[in-house]
Write a structure and sequence with these properties.
Layout: H1 9-27, H2 32-64, H3 71-91
Helix pairs in contact: 2-3
Length: 93
């Protein structure tokens, strides 16, 4: 019987899950306070780029007298960036 290849994605995932399980058995569950803090950070990760888009859009609209021409698209860009940042942050946990 041959040894499993380290490049095989299934082998990598199984080993990663074993490491997670061993860490959970060693450390236990996270506290409620820590989980609430993570939720709060996640909210700010999404909201901060949106607010930046709103402020930049309002500044551009006031400067060029364009109504909401820049505010709405930059809000959507901020939402997209915030979602992407949150996705990346949750993936690293």
């Amino acid at each position: 019987m041959s040894t499993p290849d380290e490049k095989d994605p299934l082998v990598r995932e199984v080993r990663q899950e074993q490491a997670r399980r061993a860490a959970w058995l060693r450390e236990g569950d996270e506290s409620v306070g820590r989980r609430l803090a993570q939720i709060g950070v996640l909210g700010w990760i999404i909201v901060t780029p949106m607010l930046g888009g709103i402020f930049a859009g309002r500044w551009l609209d006031a400067r060029y007298d364009t109504g909401l021409f820049w505010t709405a698209p930059l809000l959507m860009v901020g939402l997209g960036l915030g979602g992407w940042f949150a996705w990346r942050w949750m993936g690293s946990r």
